[in-house]
Amino acid sequence: MFRLAIMALVLFTSITKAQTELKEREKFSPTLHKLEQLNWKSRVLLIFETNKAEEQALKLFLEENTKLVQERDLYWFLVNGAELISNSNYKLTSDLNLEIIALVRENAPIVLIGKDGEVKYQATNLDLQEVFSRIDSMPMRRAEMRQK
Q: How many helices, marked H, and strands, marked E, lie in the chain?
């Protein structure tokens, strides 16, 4: 009986310790320094908007389409000057912000990057249906859809 009580105590302590460690890990999101950290994991949509009202409307629009965005392994980054907003769980760095600003300056205000890290689409206005259409036509995405 005494052995059983000790085993139960050890098991309880192990479970409690594991739960505490999990909670501690959840507090700290990984840091994203460069977009290449997302290569072969996620697609990226960069949006550069200087109008604060438009920025809020775009953010709301993207959040309303969360399910469709998630289905496509898509992280979006909305840049307004020094401010960077995203749907990712990563901690975003100023280096990342500078990289995104440089990318949109050399391309267009809307830039879609594939999982391979290459620019796939550029536009001056956000048309999410067009972005989804471009993603859905990519070979890797077609393979993902067949697997589901």
A: 6, 7
CA 60 to chain centre: 16
Is residue 31 within 8 Å of 90, Cβ to Cβ? yes
Smallest CA-to-CA distance from 114 within 62, 77, 72 is with 72
Cβ neighbours of residue 23 under 8 Å, at least 6 residues apart?
none
pLDDT tens digits for range 13-34: 545 554 455 344 445 579 999 9
CA angle 42, 86, 99 (to 5 degrees): 75
Asked whether the beta carbons of 96 and 35 are under 8 A apart, the reply is yes
- Pairing between β-strand 31-32 and β-strand 110-113 as defined by DSSP bridges: unpaired
d(CA 84, CA 96): 9
pLDDT tens track for 110-134: 999 999 999 999 999 889 899 999 9
Rounded to whole angstroms, the Cα distance separating 99 from 104 reads: 9
Instruction: Specify whether the CB–CB gap between 123 and 109 falls below 8 A.
Output: yes
Helix axes 128-136, 139-147, angle to 10 degrees: 80
